[in-house]
Fold this sequence. Notes:
Blueprint: H1 6-17, H2 21-28, H3 32-40, H4 47-56, H5 70-81, H6 88-91, E1 104-107, H7 108-114, E2 124-129, H8 132-145, E3 148-150, H9 169-180, E4 185-190, E5 193-200, H10 202-206, E6 209-213, E7 216-220, H11 232-243
Parallel strand pairs: 2-5
Antiparallel strand pairs: 1-2, 3-4, 4-5, 6-7
Helix pairs in contact: 1-3, 2-3, 2-4, 8-9
Amino acid sequence: MSIVDTGGLIKQARFAAGLSQRVLAERADVSRHALSRYECGNRAPSIGTLTAILAAAGWQIRAELEQLDADVRAAIARVASEPLDDRVAVSRWVSFTELARVAYRVEGLAAASLLGAPLPADHYDLAVADTPETFEALAGLVTEHSYIVEAARRRGPKFRVPRSNPEPLGAQLRAWLAAHCPDGTFWLRCAFSEARTRLAPPDDVSRHVHVETPHGRVRVAPVHEIDVVADEYALRVLRVLREMTNESGDGVAQTPSPGLE
Length: 261
């Protein structure tokens, strides 16, 4: 079968005109045997023959060129025209506003969504700088703002502050992560938001762009550094978003979404 189902088109036109194969073949000046093979998909007619057959049934073909990935570009443009807070990745950030005290950046699908990609993300992916200051800041969020540090996404061990331990909270958290999360990955939760979080070199975290939201400025990985394991459509969206990014390599699209600096 060809890319275009020419047999289906011929059959549809013939049925709509109420013609038999014999009558349509005579009108189009082709043999009935050839017409039958076209309709069955055993042979593909030339453009000229297809046009003649459809015209004999009272139909014509109208073809239009469409820009490659036009559907993705239209979806990105639609997201850009909508209120920023309509993006789930933006609205849920209200739970994580205190992360401003931590050296972090948003990565993965949530980062793409924050940058204007029409992609859903059911959680954040965060990279936080692997430094003593980060551990102190995270421990402070746990004790002061009800943040939860958990080893697994569902019912994993949670970090608890020992009452009798004289060590600084940051050191206690670092030791707990080393014991329960040897790969440096853990889950951070607050209210209705959650983030799969990885300890990363400070240089990685320092590479980010800013997205201004109603809930404060969010640090997001540049689009050319966003790497996801996703379906074909998500990969197309990321590729197009990168194509729309300027040549300076700073991760800012040439037609930026509202709130992108």
